[in-house]
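Record minuted for everyone:
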Amino acid sequence: MRSRELSGGLHPTVILWMAVGWLGLAVLPWFGIEDGFFNLSWLFEGYPLDSELAPALILNLKGEKLWLAPLGLLLAAPLLLWGRKKSDPLFGKLLVAVGAAGFVWLLFQGFAIGLRGWQFGWLQGLFGELGDRQFGMGYGALLVGLAFLFLFSVGLAARGAVGGDVFVVSTIAFVVAAVGLFIFMPILQMLANALVTEDGSYSVTGFLGKLFSPRLWSLDCLAGGSRCGVAWNSLFLAVLVGVLTTVLGLVFALMVTRTGFRHGKLLRALTVLPIITPPFVIGLAIILLFGLSGAVTQTFSDLFGIQPTRWIYGLPGLLIAQLLAFTPIAFLVLIGVVEGVSPSMEEAAQTLRANRWQTFWTVSLPLMRPGLANAFLLGFIESMADFGNPLVLGGNFDVLSTEIFFAIVGAQNDEAQAAVLAIVLLAFTLFAFYAQRFWLGKKSYTTMSGKGDAGVHPQLPVGLKRAVYGVAGVWVAFTIFVYATIFYGSFVKLWGVDHSLTLAHYVKAFAVGWNEFGIHWKGSAWSSFWTTLQIALISSPLTAAIGLLTAYLLVRQNFAGKNAFEFGTMLSFAIPGTVIGVSYVIAFNVPPIELTGTGIILVLSFIFRNMPVGVRAGVASMSQIDKSLDESSLTLGANSWQTFRKVVLPLLRPAIVAALVYSFVRAMTAISAIIFLVSARYDMSTSYIVGRVENNEYGIAIAYSAVLIGVMLAVVGLMQLLVGRRNIGRRGHELSQSRTNVSQPAFSGGS
């Protein structure tokens, strides 16, 4: 980012971050507020003199918490740059030193104080014994930490890092710090338990014994035995799901864009249905349809005299449920990629006398490689990390995610075993990640160059078109059948016993009344519903923003450690939600980052659990946008932030929608991570539904799920309306208008 050189005073960016730092140090409470991070009641409860609510500067002036005093000295140090230009060698050196020292000291002093006092004797000798326990950091510490981080970034840019671009350097620093604190630190604390024995000591032998146990790697099933190892089960299922969801996602994307299908909006809504449904509800519907006493099973038994079996439990049921749940993810990733393929390239192939099949196979499909690879990777990882479906339908087909769950919360309570299983799962995911990179190679998939493209996508070959319609038709019919069962079940008095219709389940969960204070939400589900909606609406735009910024760095920038950076952003998606939940409890249950029981820990878990979807969707779409667009914008005087906002972002609308939609619905339907993080104050919809299922109140559980589906459909439609569609300027009903819209993409900011 280009910054103005000042003849006197301080650089404006330095002034900004010094002001942010002093706001946190001298104005806002340093420690966390017990009533919640977003609660402002502290303003009227003893602030600013109460020691629990006071800013760090007030505490120091009162002679308390003197270990915070160095932070004030470091925040004042940039005043030494008064009158110096950014090109002055001292400018960058001082800011790097100040930012690094301040950020490191902030973290060090936090982690150096445990619940029972100082962790290091020399600190106790320096500052004396603590009078009370350490509290978690709050508003003030957050702003001071951000100030030091960005002062460090400005210093690095001044020293020439990444071409001296402050925006890019600051974004890299922010993402690295966030990933380090909220992904690496909790996961490393969790995985450190892999070496711990029952008596609390460390043993490499014990670790290797668990890592290579027959339960993990047995191949008895290939020799006629009853079971294979848990690791092989998970790998086989994940590969199947990755391949089949990618194929089905491509089928639906082609049907919407390449067949002249007239009901594309309806199909888009239908394909989104499975991911806005709690996974165990789909599993329950499948059991009630195809289980031993299921409606379909009993019908076939009566008609054909077939003996009912439990075939649905195990691999068949898991495969069906995961295909239902994860195919929409592939569709959301692939729809933007399929739309982004330039029609002019396909028309050029046909001009050279290639038929429709040759054009599709040799031109269109290769240009979709980034989307296909990312769709497979997401399907593979989702299957590996899925917890709800295996819990309901797994039967004797054990997988890693449920084994981790039972290792943690079961009778064995073996965190070391859970950590070993998590390492195996992570290894599989990394293998898939690098196999994807190898398949893509370093080829270019650019199809949008900013020039007017008046082409029209050719129709699919007749045979392929029929196959697409056939596969899509069968899958749509099956999806409708499953959801009709769910909808019908919400009105049934007692599913499987008494099929008389009733509204009692909806009334019990969502009753509304009036009292002297106005409207009264008296239904038992309202509290969890409003909490879930609030958390999801807060986390989804943050997830999309961080994901797309990260994708921009990966595709558009070259910097040292880029591969490690990409690995870090994908790490959270490779770990099961159960491990994420437990690791967050371990890491954030004690100071200095004390978040357990708050709403913000739920927001953070959703942001960093779902961020990889925004990253992969952004990478797939951005790979098709010619870098010359960025270069042209920079040449005309725009900085990198303006280029990202006005040039790149408008062309990423499909990726934005994918990230927003997916992060929102995952926040509304997640169960594996949040089951460990909910509290009495912050209960979530899925934990409420699980409670109803455990109490055999299936009607209320399904009624609640039906309401969630309706609400999420409405919010998803609103998101698509607000974000809009990418206008690539292709020939259609209003060719001239389309060409006008695309003629100035770099400066109009999108339509």
